[in-house]
Design goal:
This protein is mainly α. The chain contains ten helices and no strands.
């Protein structure tokens, strides 16, 4: 048990020493999700609401959307660590708990209500799930927006507080 406790303490120590790197990676991965959200808004959502997409991404560019969508997995893990660290340091505050719920609701969307289902439901195709779940999936995706904003804001704050210098100083020793 002590070995596990020491490993956890060492991990969080490393996380804090390399905070700027960790938050930079998290923010970068999460900013990529904006590409996916633009596609969701312009194609499936616009099609559902107006009956016509704002744009139609063909096969070659669709692969870019798929690749960007897969970066959501490491983004969810890295940003979840950010809020778990907040809870570890500051106790149970509402904002990190709420953002962890927003973030981790994405797993439901990723593994159960897929983008393919959202597109099929928007196109009026028959699916094994009720069509209203497509709206739930879209809502779940948009729950990322406040977390993306907060993560990028934290990156700017950490940079302004010279945590970059602390990171570089520690690594150059």
């Amino acid at each position: 048990m002590r070995l596990i406790r020491d490993a956890i303490r060492d991990f969080w120590g490393w996380y804090e020493r390399h905070y700027i790197l960790n938050i930079g990676i998290a923010a970068g991965l999460f900013l990529l999700q904006l590409v996916h959200l633009v596609w969701l808004t312009g194609q499936p959502l616009a099609d559902m609401v107006t009956g016509s997409p704002l744009f139609d991404i063909g096969a070659p560019l669709r692969w870019v959307i798929v690749l960007v969508d897969y970066t959501e997995l490491p983004a969810l893990v890295s940003v979840s660590l950010l809020y778990v660290n907040d809870l570890r340091k500051d106790g149970a505050e509402l904002k990190p708990i709420l953002y962890l719920v927003f973030l981790n609701s994405q797993w439901l969307h990723i593994f159960w209500i897929t983008d393919e289902f959202v597109v099929a439901a928007g196109d009026g195709e028959s699916t094994s799930l009720p069509a209203w779940l497509a709206s739930v999936a879209l809502l779940i995706d948009y729950l990322e927006l406040p977390v993306i904003y907060d993560t990028v804001k934290r990156l700017f704050v950490a940079t302004r507080e010279h945590r970059v210098g602390a990171f570089l100083h520690d690594d150059l020793r």
